[in-house]
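Hi V.,

You were right to ask for the full record rather than a summary. Here it is.
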Amino acid sequence: MATLSGQYYTDQTIFALEQSRIFEQEWFCAVRSADLANPGQFRTVQVGRESVLIARDRRGSLNAFLNICRHRGARLCVEETGEVRRSFQCPYHAWTYGLDGKLVAAPNLNGMPDVDRSEFGLHKVALREWLGYAWVCLADEPPSFEDTVIADVIARLGDGESIEAYQIDTLELGRRINYDVRANWKQIIENFMECYHCATIHPELTEVLPEFEDGFAAQYYVGHGAEFGEDVGGFTVDGSAGLPKLPGVREDQDRRYYAITVRPQVFINLVPDHVILHRMFPVAPDRTLIECDWLYLPEVVESGVDLTKSVELFHRVNQQDFDACERCQLAMDSRGYASGGVFVPSEHHIGEFHEWVSGRLTEQ
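Predicted structure:
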């Protein structure tokens, strides 16, 4: 089975199509809701070609808008994160918007009766909170959240209830690590979906999950979680005991690892005592920013317990994976990869992802 050709990882025109037809049309996991806990807190996020402003209003709701002033198109907020008291004011002509996006003031506005405040508020972006994160969609008519995001989870786990057992929206951030990966976003997804490479580059992971040495990723089998080794105490870098089990985790989920790809830019990793969630932000054909969150029970985070061994295992996995992706990226414009490569049988499920990408790019 053939892979995508090399140009899919280097061509700026293809990347522009991916931005407009994938990232600007699908649900995009933008920010952890708890990062914007107080009214007036905001974050700007790059979604495809657009800067999106996400803020919490005085009623406690999160709202998302295109980060552009309705007057002359100035960028409203240039900071990645911040906090305002009651409104956003454009630094160019001082048009001022409430936290709900409504136009509340502008110089000489009372002398301009043809400017209807209700029509010149910020451009609203669809927002849905799930698993403790704010997901946004720039499409004029967003696709069903259930038929896309949740469907990807069900396709992996076999049902929608299994992920609820981890009660992810009640967990707290124990650690966040940002990665700047010099590789195309699809390289990173393909790597995450297969384990043909695990025995080669993941010695710590295969010590904890011995079945990964056989080259079949957990995602190859619907509902399957990779089982911890007999002598492994927890999902830690040295296999030592982990932290208290999440209270909702079922007996059949205990001592198992589940990996989920939510297209187009989220990885969810489930283990009995914590959850690891990756969010990808593709910024160029050969560059992807990644925020990786380690989530734990609130009492674990508040206790100040050392999380190093817990975090270090997947941090090493990330580094090993991203190094491999960067190595592949270096050769994507080689004449030797102009027609692409091939999948081995344990990687055939990635072909479905390639079909999904190709289908989105050819849709009118």
